[in-house]
Specification:
Low-confidence stretches: 159-164
Distance between the termini: 39 Å
Number of strands: 7
CATH superfamily: START domain
CATH topology: Alpha-D-Glucose-1,6-Bisphosphate, Chain A, domain 4
Radius of gyration: 16 Å
CATH class: Alpha Beta
Amino acid sequence: MAEHASSIEIDAGPDEVFDFLVTEAGMTAWMGQHAELDPCVGGQFAVDIAGYAVRGQYLEVDRPHRVVFSWGMTGNPALPPGASKVAITLTPTLRGGTRVDLLHSDLLPTAMAGHVDGWTHFLSRLRIVAGGGEAERDTWIPLPMRTQQQEGVSRDTGKRQLGP
C-alpha cells in the first residue's frame, strides 16, 4: 500500500481550522458539494466530491489538534468505503497560524496520482477559506475523468469523440 503526505500553512488558529474538518458547512466550503458528518469516534464521515460518494468514519477526534477518518468510495471495489485512512494534524505556528499536515495511507499505488491531484487542489482551497477568504466555485474534475476528456473519450460510451 502507498501513502501521500502533504502540508500547508494557514493564517488562522487551530480552533478555526478544526471547524473546517468537522462541520458540514466548513467541509463543503473547501471540499465537496454535500457532507454528512458526525465528528466523534465511530461517527459518520460522508462527503460527495465531484460525483463520487466518499464514505468512512471518524477514527480519532482531538480538538483542535488532530482528526483521523477512514476514506473510500461507494461503488469502487479497489477503494471501498473505509479502505484507506486520512490523518490531519494541526500545529500552531509562531505567527499565530496553523500548520496542516495530511497523511493519506493505505492507498493502492494505482490510486496515488488521483489522490495527490485531489489533495493538492482541496488543500489549497482549505488554505483560502480557513484563512478568511472565499474560494471560487469549485470546478475540479477528478484526474481519471480529466484524462478521458483530454483524450476525447466519452465517459458514457468509451468511444472517441469527434470535434470539440
